[in-house]
């Protein structure tokens, strides 16, 4: 991990096209702005983790539903 010290109104540049702007520093909070090409999705980590968990839960629910439907079809075709 690269650790940088920045002051308000300073910028960190990533890969020539992503800018991290230090907008404000107050008490124990740093307000940042991210300027990136639209093909890059930018999430707060805790939001991304929640999205990922919800997607995984949806896949599991869909798989369970699909398995039940398939099992029901197999049972009804064997009658």
Mind explaining what this structure looks like?
With 79 residues, the protein is α+β, with helices and mostly antiparallel strands. Helices cover 42% and strands 25% of the residues. It has 1 helix and 3 strands. The protein has one helix at residues 45-77; strands at residues 11-14, 18-26, 29-35. A hairpin with a 3-residue loop joins β1 (11-14) and β2. It starts with 10 loop residues before the first strand and ends with a helix.
Ends distance: 62 Å
Helix/strand structural class: alpha+beta
Output the radius of gyration: 23 Å
How large is the count of helical segments?
1
Oligomer: single chain
Note the main sheet. Answer: 3 strands, antiparallel
Per DSSP, what share of the residues sits in E-state strands of 2 or more residues? 25-35%
What's the pLDDT, averaged over the residues?
87
List keywords for this structure.
single chain, 79 residues, alpha+beta, 1 helix, elongated
Topology:
Blueprint: E1 11-14, E2 18-26, E3 29-35, H1 45-77
Antiparallel strand pairs: 1-2, 2-3
Structure in a nutshell:
The protein has 79 residues and is of the alpha+beta class. Helices cover 42% and strands 25% of the residues.
């Amino acid at each position: 991990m690269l650790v940088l010290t920045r002051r308000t109104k300073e910028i960190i540049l990533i890969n020539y096209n992503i800018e991290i702007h230090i907008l404000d520093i107050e008490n124990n909070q740093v307000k940042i702005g991210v300027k990136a090409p639209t093909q890059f999705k930018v999430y707060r980590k805790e939001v991304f983790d929640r999205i990922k968990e919800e997607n995984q839960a949806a896949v599991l629910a869909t798989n369970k539903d699909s398995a039940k439907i398939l099992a029901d079809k197999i049972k009804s075709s064997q009658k």
